[in-house]
Amino acid sequence: MAKLKIEPMKNPDKIINYWKKEKFVVACILIFGLTFNISIILGPIYQGKLIDSIVGGGSLSSIVTLTGTYVVLIGTIQLLRYFKRFYIRRFANSTSATMRLMIYNNIMHKSISELDNENTGNLMTRAISDVDLCVEGMRKFTTELFDTGVLMTAYIISLLVYDVKITILSILYIPIAMMLAEKLKSIIYKYSIDFRKKSSEVASITFDSIENAMLYRVNGMEAQNRAKYNAELEDLQNKAIKANILENSMQPIYNVIAMIGIIMVIYFGGAKVIHGGWTIGIFSTYITMFIAMANKASKAAKLFNSVQKSQVSWKRIKPYLKEYENKDTAANINKDSTKLSVENLGLRYAVSKENIIENISFEGKQGDIIGVTGPIASGKSTLGISLTGLYPYLGSIKIDGKELTSYSEYERSQMISYLGHKSELFSDTIYNNITLGNEKDITSVLKDVCFDTDLAAMPDGQNTLVGNSGIRLSGGQQARISLARALLNKNKIIIIDDPFSAVDMKTEETIIENLKNNYKHSLIILISHRLTIFSKISQVVFLNNDKMTEYGAHNELMKTSDLYATIFNLQCTESGDDNGK
Amino acid sequence: MQLYLIYNVQRVVMTMENSLVKKSIIKVIRKNMGRCILLIFAVCGTVITSLVPPQILKQIFDQNLVPRSSDGLLMLAIAYMGVILFIGVFDFMKEAVLTVLGQKITKEIRVEMMVKLEKIYALFFSSNGSGVVVSRFTNDVDAINSLFTSGIVGMMIDCLKVIGIIFSIWLFSETLGIITIILLPIIYAITRLFQKRMLKAQIENRILVGKVNNHISESLKNAQMIKVFSKENYMERKYTEHLLDNYKTVEKVNFYDSVFPPMIQITRAVVIAIIVILSSKQLNYLGISLGMVAASIDLISNLFAPIENLGMELQNIQQAISGIHRVNNFYSETEDTNTIKELQAENIIPIREEVRLSFHDLTFHYEEGTDVLQNINLIIKPQEKVTFVGRTGVGKSTLFKLIMGLLKPSEGNITINGIDVYNIPNNEKRKIFGYVDQSFHLIKGTVAEQISLQDESITREQIEHALEFVGMTDYIASLEKGFDTQVINDTLFSQGQMQLLAIARAIVTDPPILLLDEITANLDSITEEKIVTVLQKASRAHTILSISHRLSSMIASDMVVILENGRVKNTGSPEMLLQKDDWYRSHLALEKLTWS
Description:
A: alpha/beta, 2 domains, 10 strands, B: ABC transporter transmembrane region fold, Rossmann fold, 4-stranded antiparallel β-sheet, 21 helices
């Protein structure tokens, strides 16, 4: 029965390996393909015998026996055909699933900076339609290997057995048809590339229009975007017509060319019957086989094309078909205590010219809450993300005395959790969004982020579906679900980048209090531009726009840094002003 | 067979009743009358010429082979080839015209879908993932294209061929004609059985493909989080689950797809056997010549070819029918209906200093029975600065969407100078509202285009002015290509800078009403203060509505509206509320406590 597993494979960048991988299925295809395509010549042969039996006027019982044999024979042949078809389709199905899995695995294991440079629409096309096209080509290739290759050989041999001269004279035109098809191949290939390229471009525009639909709507841009989209579609349509017309319409022409030999077949074959060399039945058998062969030959062109087309897709997906990667989940980390020391840390993104942050140094241990603040564009978020080790950094980040880069990615994830300002939710349940497959009780963590009251109002509780990107929840609820996810494992280091922007003050205060009380074994790094809570935390890293960093306890900074004190006082008087109104 | 055809065409027609697909097809046919006529000509040519070769064969058998005479044999051979040539030419014409028409229809459908997307009710986007919607535009439309090219038209041709063949056989022998006709319901039954089963599997499969796509799109969107939490394996496991479901349904489809053609071929063999037995000299039941027997076998073979094709076409059609269903479902999504095209920003707000925004008994719910907002009544005076405060989830952002006429109130309405905002066409909105969201959405394009959103009516000066306004000019000048730097990802700007860009985007057209949704949430004090100064400078001719979860809003408000449980709990000037509203007073005190 159906193989109910989709498994990774080795060397996925060599197309031949997809056949090698499916040993059983390919063996079935081979056996049934060969037997079916060889035995199929028995159909026309017996059909001829049937006609001869009418001419010969044998006994009724002999005719009935003959027709009975004929039916049984066809039945057997068609049973073989069923198996051949089914296994070829199964091969395509598992190949498509494997390819999709391998591409997904590759994308997921790309580094974050590589992914930043990828275009989402492009990746989608690759993962979806290119795989389909490629597999379609592989399937057709496998099918036609038998249906054209084996079958035509079988036909030619039997035709030669009937009459060498007629066969040679009549099949001369078949290679011409095939050559013409082969010639046109390169043109079709070129058009096909143009078409695929455009198609992927249009897909990416479509994605942008849908993803940012509300933005465009609020700004009344939909009509103008549509006009541009229409122009793109027009272009796509023309490219599609060019690519498809040669491919789909030429087959009848190839057929005409391949069929020219029929004149010889009828004339010389007819003459042979008249002179008694052949029976009428043989003439009928011969003509049936010849027509079937010419037909196949004209379709062989289609085979070249679909193989060619799938090569285009194959080229596009090949870079994504790399060895299967599996994160090493061995973790050698110190669970008892935590010590973080950051020295001269610097980071830059590939696109920008200069370092976003420079020369940042600070230290912390379990139970500490370190606040990170600074003016706009001072690199607060960059500092936060650099502590995850996802981007290459300058200087040194040491956890328990060991450099962050010498920990494996998995170890880092077990030590550090990070919450960015985007909520990053999946269209799944609240429970799955928080646990991400890590079956744990989430009641307490939901309480820590003050979600318990929200949850009480949801009829499905933890199994409430959050909608696409969490759209069914409010901004504050989304942020708190993401926070709960970051807190769930009580990792050694918890980095929180401004999660409270959509959360009201009272809730924020409660959450901070919960963090202080319930996460004493963690070192919490809280990135925020609200300094009010900073007076209650251990240390503050204050980033300046001029890339100077000040570091110390809140009270120290109040004394040593004018800017820090100014901001702090500003934020305080601000509420005082309102009070005075 | 005719019955079957009628049934199927009916199905397609029914599916297409008042549908986008039907509309598009009709439109393309109208525009391409010449091509359509050519198509009909080619189709008739193909059908008629393909009936001729068996007749020639019959001649050869009866005139030459049986009587053993070579008179006219060469002529017949050449005639045979000539007919083949005609078949080829007609076929070529048919295919070429079909390709062109098919692509035109595909394009038309996509165009219409985009028109629809423009009108579709805003809530559609909250309940449908981008990946799923994209696959409506791509996969489903492609399936519809194959419906037209290799589906419907192919099927009509094949049905016509069947009719032609039965007619030819009927001419040889009525009995044989009747036998052939009896055969049709049998084949119809088989095909029908497969159709039902396959359609079910196909629809299942389409849904699963949508899920697979959405999973990829979400994985890409949340890549950073997945990395940080080392959840690649988890995500892959989920993906494999979707793939496996998909695999199983495809396997089902494959079974039917594989078993159908062999069954047809076996039936063909049985029919040929019967004809041979009936034509044997002993029975001679059909009373036909040997040439006729041979031609009949040929014709019967030709009869099965189109029927076998029908099996293939069936698959295309079924795939397309589920595609059509889904495209049409998309097309019948609720639309914003009340838009009055004649409404123009200049007429709604002739004098920008005079904007009267009123809420009349406004009630809104996403789902029946759970009102997000209830009976909101408010009148906002020209150029008033209003702050909405309240707990998160109280419906403040929903209120803003209602103000901009993106959502339709369940009851009551919101008006600007007496005009219902829900009636205002979207393309006028940018001249009326400047909306700054909690988060900034980057679009494909350059820095300048982030501001203009590629609106060609916005000049470079306006963009520069807006960026100057928010103090981003220097930073942008430092970029490699300045305003024309392509923004490929969000590492180019910090969170705060993106918020500044969002403000620049909102004010670039200098709209009279500004809607600020928690804009200071991601900004540090200094930038915040700068923006407040800037906004206050601009506030002279602006009505400003802002949302804040804090009571001490950054922009001095003339009026504070406190929302609680979807209702207006209290309104008034900050001074008045301080005196009269206990909640306001106590929370302000609390805020002050936390802050000092």
